Each structure stands twice: as C-alpha cells, then as structure tokens.
Design the sequence.
C-alpha cells in the first residue's frame, strides 16, 4: 500500500493482475449451507474440495474517499442444478455502492435489499453493472466452460457483511434444470430474525 | 437516475455506452490558456474548433457511498508539440480517489498534489490506474491515430475543482519534440497564490 499513484496490468488471457496485495480462494468447503441441493453438495465435497472462485485485491486504506478494487474470477461448474457463485454479501455500511465491469464470460448478478426488493442483472463482457447502496449482491457464472471475470470497485469504508446472506440466503437462485439458466425462487430463503 | 441496479453495454469498437445521462464534448476553445504553445493554439483554433475529448457520464446522487462513473475518450492529435489532453482537475473534496481501467489506446496520466509531489503513469489497454486521494489528474493521448478510452469511477461526493489547474497548470507536460512522447517540466507552471 502506497500513497503514490499506482498501476497494474491484467494478463490478456487470464485477466490475473501482475501485482496485487491479497489473493482469496473460495473453495466448496467455504460454501457450507449455501447451495440448494445439500446432498449434491456433500457428495461433491467428498470427491474434491474444488476452488469455486478467486479474488485478487489491491489494498488501500479502508476509509471514505478511497476506492477498494480488484478482479474476481468465478469458475464454471455446478453443485446439483445450481451454478457456481460467490458467497454474496451486504456492505457493512449499507449506504455504499459497488461497480462492476465484466471482462469475460457470462453470468448474473443476484441482488436484494433488506426492504424486500430483488433484481437479477445479466453479466457479460463489455457490460458495466451498478449495484446501488443497500443492495446485497452475488455473482453467478452460467457458462459451461469459461471463467466469469470482473473488475470491481467500491468505497473504502464499505466493509463486508457475509453473515446475513449465510443465514438467510438470497431470495432468488440461478439453476439449470435442463434448459440453461433459470431464475427461480429460493425455497429455503428465510429472513434473519431481528 | 434510479435506485435499482442498472447496466449498460459498451459498443465493442467505439466503447461508447448504449445508455448514459450526460455527454460532455470538450473542444479546443474550452482549453484556452492550457497548452504551452499559445501561437499554435490560436492558429489551430482559427482553422477549426475541434473536439479534443468526450466524456459519457452515468448520473448518480453526488453523495458519499455512491460511485460516479463513465467513459472518457481522448482523441489523438497535437497543439504544437503537445498531445491532446483533458483539462485535468483536483477533486473539490481533496481526500477522494479515482480509478481508471484503460480499454483502448496509449497515453499518460499526469498527476500532482498540492504538497508538490508529481507522478506520470502510463496508460494502455488492460491496465488499471489508481489515483489516490489528493492527486490532481489529467489524461494525455500519445497515440498517432487511436482514441484513448478509459472507464473511470470515483466517490459520489468528490466534486471537480478545474480552477486550480486552469490557473497554475500541471508541473509536467507531455510533448513530442520529434522523438515521440517526452515528459518535461512545464515552464509556465506557477502556483495559485494562497
């Protein structure tokens, strides 16, 4: 972390930054309870604890005025009928946005607010998505064989609240029940008691 | 402007967004006093008031927690020996950063702080540049024939202070004195009196 302007390059084929401060690898075992088909999850995990997605972060002070940023890569695959996806989170400071520029692949951003609104937006290369303040968000890769790669940026003071989504899930799921991606209600969705 | 998540696509060849709220076109006549060679500037302006750069902005509330964003396109060309460039600015709220992802072209970001630090970073496709809080910034296109195209994002409350740079200029210029881009001291730089 430095207070001088700084740059990094994205590898033209993998989009992995040539400099970064933090590399997060989320495996199947990190997604306990998140997938609809718990039997498929257990069977898959018994076979191999696969890496589902990776995040390359550039460190900056976690304060207002700074912009945290990096690259997220969701690999292709499914747990039962459900596509590989990120954990998804609210920002701890709810009134903070996030912006995504999709570099490669195709997928969906699944989003919802504490007030009960929900939205699902398409992700594909050359598309910019704005997630306004208050919207929890999860990215889902619906490609058969290609990584979903995104550049992301959000306010330095946002913070991550993973717990709410871990407990209640998202209202919508993206499944493949034989005809490609479908957006369906999550039968296991239940709000955190307040 | 809406409080729902929203997306736009970038045209694969021009990178112009298929939806935007504000389109700024900066012409030669908007850059009075900014180029080193004032005679070349006057002669060029007498010939044609060319568009030097364009910005496509997405509107969001100008408050903390939001991220303002869009696409900037600097056309290729020179005024005398000096490459086409943006006006450049400090943020009104000095303690706010900006981030750039270069989509096409090649150039430089010329930067400086009120404290007297300066930096010049290379811009090229697939490169991410972080401009930390306090750094004024100007983009310069050094290609002979290609637009310099960048995706930018900055905090909603940042604001633009163009006046300081209009008065004092940047400490460094990017000129072509016959051997391609050179970074040189600006002989006309003089600090705003405080």
Sequence:
């Amino acid at each position: 972390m430095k207070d001088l302007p700084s740059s990094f390059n994205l590898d033209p084929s993998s989009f992995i930054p040539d400099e970064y401060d933090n590399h997060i690898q989320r495996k199947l075992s990190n997604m306990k309870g998140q997938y609809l088909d718990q039997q498929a999850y257990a069977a898959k995990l018994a076979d191999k604890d696969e890496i589902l997605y990776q995040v390359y972060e550039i460190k900056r002070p976690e304060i207002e005025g700074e912009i945290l940023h990096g690259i997220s890569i969701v690999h292709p695959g499914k747990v039962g009928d459900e596509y590989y996806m990120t954990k998804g989170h609210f920002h701890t400071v709810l009134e903070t946005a996030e912006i995504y520029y999709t570099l490669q692949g195709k997928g969906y951003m699944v989003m919802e607010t504490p007030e009960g609104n929900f939205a699902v937006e398409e992700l594909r290369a050359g598309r910019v998505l704005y997630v306004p303040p208050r919207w929890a968000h999860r990215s889902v890769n619906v490609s058969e064989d290609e990584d979903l790669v995104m550049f992301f940026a959000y306010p330095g003071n946002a913070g991550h609240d993973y717990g709410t989504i871990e407990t209640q899930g998202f209202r919508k799921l993206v499944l493949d029940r034989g005809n490609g991606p479908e957006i369906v209600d999550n039968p296991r969705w239940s709000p955190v008691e307040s």
About this structure: Residues 38 and 80 of chain A are 9 Å apart (CA to CA). Residues 38-47 of chain A form the longest helix (10 residues).
